[in-house]
Amino acid sequence: MFLLGLILLLNTHFSFALECLTNCTVGPFSFSQPFYIPYGQCLQRVSKNYCSISLKFNYKEQTYVAHFETYPITNDFIYVTSGPYLSYTIDYTCSNDASCAASYAEDLYDEMVSRNYDAERIYGQIALYIENSAREQPLRCYDLNNEIVTCLPDEMCSLEYNQNNNRIQSRGCVMSDVARIAFYDSGTFAYFDVHCEKDLCNDMLTFSQIQTIFTNNDLTDSNGRKRSNSAFRQQITFSFSFLIFLINYI
């Protein structure tokens, strides 16, 4: 009887369809405006087992936008380039109730605004290693075999570094019109993607400097991974506690 009740509980928790907000973008909001859904917006809903939201914070313009969808993804994405420009995007999926995505945005707003990243200062530090506005000749870059290759005129050096196994995933020349740093972390997989326009700038020394800048500015933690936010930790804590309950009583 207990096992039957537990199965019913599991089925209710994980299979109950939610009426999720979908196909709706709100904002941009100023950093001085707490998150809300304007009256008359986001009326479209769809029945799903999970709801999701993507929140993008622009630290140069001090604005943020939110997009409701139903993609089953949870990750962090940081993008830094000239302008200066620094954005931090968080994609989040939940299944607590139909309003869980909006509630998450309300909780996340305070934390992300309080981080107060200085886009101009951070890019200024990074630009020393990746930007060369006076470049005229084709670049020389390292490839995956640590050999030097010459890129085409419209190419830059690139480096993709896997944070999970601490190794270079790919390296060489890439067609690109802007030097930039991209960082991605899903919780189970993380990587840095670097495009730079200086000779041999896709080496490990340059990458180490970039990692240090991210860590020193609290974009990533000391292990080069995303900084967890409190709302996400609450979701993980609930799931882990529920898993322990199952292990003890099944």
**Secondary structure tally, helices:** 5
> What distance lies between the first and last C-alpha atoms, to the nearest angstrom?
12 Å
Strand content: 25-35%
The figure for the number of domains is 2
Q: Which strands sit side by side, in order, in the main sheet? A: 2-5-4-7-6-12-13-10-11
Specify the biggest β-sheet.
Answer: 9 strands, antiparallel
Overall body shape: elongated
Q: Mean of the pLDDT scores?
A: 82
How helix-rich are the residues, as a percent range?
25-40%
How many distinct beta strands? 13
Supply the helix-strand structural class.
alpha+beta
In short:
The protein has 250 residues and is an alpha+beta fold. Helix content is 30%, strand content 33%.
Can you put this structure into words, describing what you see?
Helix 3 packs antiparallel against helix 4. The protein folds into 2 domains: 2-78 and 86-117, no CATH class; 122-216, CD59 (Ribbon). The model is unreliable at 1-15 and 230-250 (pLDDT under 50). The protein is built from 5 helices and 13 strands. It is an alpha+beta fold and 250 residues long.
Characteristic key phrases:
disordered C terminus; 2 domains; CD59; nine-stranded antiparallel beta sheet
